[in-house]
Amino acid sequence: MITTTQTANELLDAMRGCGFTLNLDGDMLEVNQARWIDDELAGLIKTHKAGLIKILENEAIIFTR
């Protein structure tokens, strides 16, 4: 699975490549296909949560322009 990510960007790319969808609901990070998240991936998401949120916020700004 996803184990060698160093940055939030790498994690997001790897998760999307594996079919995960990440969305923001206010300040909450939602991950679709969450049933496939193992303990290691959950730890990576927690580690990079702030970065993932920032990326998704920036994508939303670009998308709405």
Structure summarized in a few sentences:
This protein is 55% helix and 15% strand. The protein has 65 residues and is α+β, with helices and mostly antiparallel strands. Strand 1 (21-25) and strand 2 (28-32) form a beta hairpin.
Describe it for me?
The chain is of the alpha+beta class. The protein has one domain. Helix content is 55%, strand content 15%. It has 2 helices and 2 strands, in the order αββα. Strands 1-2 form a two-stranded antiparallel ribbon. α1 packs across α2. The longest helix is centred in the C-terminal third of the chain and has 26 residues. The radius of gyration is 11 Å and the shape is globular.
- Going across the biggest sheet, name each strand in turn: 1-2
Number of strands: 2
How many domains make up the 3D coordinates?
A: 1
Distance between the termini: 35 Å
Q: Characteristics of this structure?
A:
two-stranded antiparallel sheet, about 55% helix, globular
Give the SSE map.
Layout lengths: L7 H10 L3 E5 L2 E5 L6 H26 L1
Antiparallel strand pairs: 1-2
